[in-house]
Specification:
Elements (H helix, E strand, L loop, with lengths): L9 H4 L7 E6 L5 H15 L4 E6 L5 H12 L9 E3 L3 E4 L5 E6 L17 E6 L7 H8 L10 E6 L7 H7 L9 E3 L2 E6 L10 H13 L1 H7 L15 H7 L7 E9 L12 E8 L4 E6 L6 H14 L4 E5 L6 H9 L6 E4 L5 H13 L3 E3 L4 H9 L10 H14 L4 H5 L1
Parallel strand pairs: 1-7, 1-9, 2-5, 2-6, 6-7, 10-13, 12-15, 13-14
Antiparallel strand pairs: 3-4, 4-5, 8-9, 10-11, 11-12
Helix pairs in contact: 6-7, 11-13, 12-13
């Protein structure tokens, strides 16, 4: 039987022996549990005389709930007739392989937890990995040591806090929060509800969009599957974004392209922050567009040029503290674009220079033309801690908004 899988999930079914860990992660309704269950079932019927485990931190009601739920998910395969269902395991009568359902920790009223006594253990699926304790995870990984077996640990999870051992050990150094790809012996597959829109009701999507409007950070975590921080010291608050998402004024008098360029140009470079900012006749401000990303100088130069022409901008604003006149030299000399480039120098740290901008947001004087995922997440998560990554979109927005807000006293304020 042919199964139509989303392209991003195909990597799970094609993993070679070099891949030991697979992380299937992301937000709710992203088909993580369904896809990983299909993979585990196919593994069961293709491997001869091996033992596999489906586990969670706690495993209750295995016979009456967990196994029936698993069988329902894999019914599309049409293999249930060859499976022998027992109290806490499923056996494929053709291959002789067995799938055990186990908890990593003993819950009240359940059988003893753990994987001791299971020989030829080749595959483990950890469902709801965000609930797993580090000591139990380490103990679990130590059980996969039988020679001659292709060892696999597949982890399905909804990201939680950046204080989690999972984040620190496996996610902290990823290129971005929606990364899919291979790093060393680990395969990462990111998914969210946006990959499964055709299967979701309009009512469910309306609920998701409502949460996005009311609590952007919660939406990012629950439905986009981004990691969260324990934040108390951020300048920008959720209510600031709620004000920013009102209908913006219509009369624009000036527009600038604000850029915070990365000083290096490779795959591991910081992103280049690019934000379009307008000033209105009422002396309020609008974030028109965000084009932040990891680019070469040629790429971001072309993006800036196109935005400049699209909005008939008055200037390109950039900070000279780190890269000097990198922006001007790249745009005007290297690329030959005749754009008005204005460099500014700040004698203040990021938090101090952002404080007046946070006040503008609190006063309802800054509008967002739409949701800007990178900028708005940085606004709600950046605390100024030296260990934090540079907030590139936020830096660019602060440059642009500060320029407009202090046009008459710009040099004395920033010099």
């Amino acid at each position: 039987m042919k199964i139509n899988l989303k392209k991003k999930f195909e990597a799970l079914f094609k993993t070679n022996e070099d891949i030991r860990y697979v992380f299937l992660y992301g937000g709710r309704a992203g088909a993580k549990s369904f896809t990983s269950s299909l993979w585990l079932a196919l593994r069961l019927i293709s491997a001869k005389n091996q033992n596999l485990v489906y586990c969670r931190q706690y495993m209750t009601n295995v016979e009456t709930s967990i196994i029936p739920e698993f069988l329902s998910k894999i019914s599309i395969l049409g293999i249930n007739g060859r499976l022998k269902i027992m109290k806490d395991k499923i056996k494929d009568i053709v291959t002789g392989s067995q799938l055990f359902f186990k908890g990593l920790e003993k819950a009240e009223g359940t059988a003893e937890a753990g994987l001791k006594g299971i020989p030829r253990l080749s595959t483990i699926l950890i469902d709801e990995m965000q609930e797993v304790k580090e000591a139990d995870f380490d103990r679990l990984c130590g059980t996969l040591r039988d020679k001659g077996l292709s060892l696999k640990i597949v982890c399905a999870l909804n990201p939680t806090s950046t204080t989690s051992f999972i984040y620190k050990r496996f996610f902290a150094d990823l290129p971005n929060e929606e990364f899919s790809g291979i790093i060393d012996n680990k395969l990462y597959i990111y998914t969210s509800y946006e990959d499964c829109l055709e299967y979701l009701s309009q009512q469910y999507l309306d609920e998701i969009n409502s949460l996005k409007e009311k609590n952007y950070l919660k939406w990012l975590n629950q439905y986009k599957g981004h990691w969260t921080s324990n934040l108390q010291n951020t300048l920008f608050k959720q209510e600031h974004l709620e004000l920013a998402h009102r209908e913006p004024p219509k009369e624009i008098i000036k527009t600038i392209i604000a850029i915070d360029p990365a000083v290096t140009a490779n795959k591991s470079s910081d992103a280049t922050g690019i934000v379009v900012v307008s000033k209105t006749a009422e002396k309020d401000f609008i974030i028109e567009e965000e084009k932040t990303g990891v680019y070469t100088p040629q790429e971001w130069g072309l993006i800036v040029k196109r935005l400049y022409e699209k909005y008939e901008a008055n200037a390109v604003i950039y900070e000279t503290n780190q890269g000097g006149d990198l922006v001007k030299e790249n745009i005007q000399r290297s690329l030959g674009y005749t754009l008005n480039c204005v460099g500014v120098h700040s004698s203040k740290g990021k938090i101090l220079r952002a404080e007046p901008i946070a006040t503008l947001y609190a006063e309802g004087r800054v509008y967002h033309r739409q949701h800007f995922p990178i900028l708005e997440k940085e606004m709600l998560t950046y605390t100024g801690d030296p260990k934090e990554k540079s907030p590139n979109s936020l830096d660019a927005a602060v440059h642009g908004l500060t320029y407009f807000n202090t046009e008459n006293t710009f040099k004395s304020s920033w010099g």
